[in-house]
Amino acid sequence: MPNIRFLFVLALPLCMALSLPLATAQSRSGGPLPEVVEFEPSEDKKAIQLLRRQIAAEQLATALQLSDSQAADVIVLIREVQDHKRARRQQRQRGEAHLRALLEDYLDQVQRGGAADEQIIADLKELRQANRPEPGQGRANRRDVRERLLSILTEQQLSALRSFRPMAGLRGDREGESGRKRAHRDSEGLQADNARGVNRKARKQAKAGRKAKKKKRIARVLMSDEMLAVLSR
Length: 233
Known about the structure:
Structural class: mainly alpha
Distance between the termini: 74 Å
Mean pLDDT: 77
Number of strands: 0
Order of helices and strands: HHHHHHHHH
Low-confidence stretches: 1-29
Strand content: under 5%
Helix content: over 70%
Largest sheet: none
């Protein structure tokens, strides 16, 4: 007797392959497009994310122990960073609306004639160039923020900022274990590399990548709406 489960698994990709041209044909013929299912985070998920951000902001403010004048300076910096991000977001949204209109024209021409005209292609290239950030601008902005923080915070506060871990008591054991495993793996890899004379550039790059991610997480907490609310109380 044939294995029914095996036959079902075997037939499933074939059924999907046969149904795909039909759906495509319906779309191209002007029929209804397949429904796209988008998964929005639940209200509980949104609340959990907000609570995590609020806890991180409260803990970072406690760790830094800013004076009133320092808090005022950090508030000014946070607002400037947020204004810049808001301006960038608005520019991106305007570009998206323009891009949508161009792509709708592009699709209309492709459906009618099989190819878009040169004007639409030129407009798309111009829009892409106009929305492309200036080379090095993001790095320059981050350097400006970093230099201003260096002028605001003391060495002790900068040390607290670098070592900050949100909800450290909850995550300490897991992070300690993962850190020990990583150190052991790095040690073993280093010994193997030395024995074989292998270039360790990839290992150093991975370590640098982890440090960069950590800096971004801390900066995201420091420049957040939640931190602004804490310092403004």
